[in-house]
Amino acid sequence: MPRAEITDLLLLEELLTDEEKAARDTVARFVDKEVLPIIGHHFREGTFPAHLIPGLAEMGVLGANLQGYGCAGMNTVSYGLILQELERGDSGLRSFASVQGSLCMFPIHAYGSDEQKERFLPGMAQGRLIGCFGLTEPDFGSNPGGMRTRAVKDGDTWVLTGAKAWITNGAIADVAVVWAKTEEGGAESIRGFLVEKGMPGFTAREIPGKFSLRASVTSELSFQEVRVPGRNVLPKVTGLRGPLSCLNNARLGIAFAVTGAAIACFEGAREYALSRKQFDGKSIAGYQLTQEKLADMLQEIVKAQLLALRLARLKDEGKATPVMVSLAKRNNVKAALEIARSARGVYGANGVTDAYPPVRHMLNLESVFTYEGTHEVHTLVLGKAITGIDAFN
Ligand code: FAD
């Protein structure tokens, strides 16, 4: 078993198929052996452990829930479980996999031409090609529809000008799915462009100074009259529906994934509390206030797992809606963040160092709280669903 049975209080194990458990356990073993021993060092140094990419590819993690083109074709539950295990290691590694699979391979798979799929997807599934997803801009985050990046048609090519900010994998990407405004037949729209490394006018630079997701590459992308050939435009989608459908796909994975960070924090805090003694040689796990913290953590983990599992099953049945995804992302990320903070407290002073994992998970989860739709934006999505009133503007 990759984790203590205590976190499966409601016997969710019984609701998983052998295939789902096997996918999870393969990644769990990889995380225990390859990730946990080195991730603290990468977080401290602010480096992404790129040497792990071939191992991820070998396990079928990259584009795991896509069919064909060398992808593993797993169901959503398996995909969620493997992301949960990666996140138990570190959210930076999980972010790499989410962006590669859900935000870069998914739009090529769903909206690309046959030629684009053949050209990019097998290499991406094998980890030979790295992808990123450029939607956010320096001045447009929660409101991506306001984007200023533009693509103007010039014969058979498109001329792309603008900038994207906070792009995971940006500086290491071979291909960027970039969303830009277009004007066709007098009407404004949005299209996805496959911008390749080395195209003249395309540059990427890493954003310095992050306290969060330090073991992940986060970059600014700049496009100065980049000439993108027509064959690199995603032909099957126009408008905000394109990027939003990718985000919806990724968010579901994130709602599942964050329980991994929560479990790592809970297990660590439990172990630490049992071994740490204060006052008369008594372990701090024996004090009621510590037990309350651990009880709250476990309760929220069990609830988050139930939510994620039900949502993933609904997705596989074709019944998951964006409102359901908002609810799960909003609840589970907040719960994981609070668990990480509480676990940090159980470690006392030791908890503020990177010798123990909670503060790393806590800082990582601050980004997860903000990306893929901020906590507040998901609140407004729910508010609109509940009242029928749009409070965004
Ligand atoms: P803003 O939109 O400026 O929001 C600031 C605050 O105001 C937030 O609290 C927000 O909730 C609140 N707010 C905004 N509008 C409203 C409103 N109408 N009502 C109430 N509150 C509101 N983007 C990509 O495209 N690709 C990536 O790969 C990617 N990776 C990322 C990695 C990291 C580490 C981080 C931190 C971000 C990443 N992002 C990425 C960007 C992320 O999606 C945006 O940061 C997010 O959408 C929020 O945008 P913003 O930061 O501009 O905040």
UniProtKB/TrEMBL annotation:
Transmembrane segments: none annotated. The keyword Lyase does not apply. It holds the Pfam family Acyl-CoA_dh_N. Residues 132-226 form the Acyl-CoA oxidase/dehydrogenase middle domain. Belongs to the acyl-CoA dehydrogenase family. PANTHER family: GLUTARYL-COA DEHYDROGENASE, MITOCHONDRIAL. This is Acyl-CoA dehydrogenase family protein.
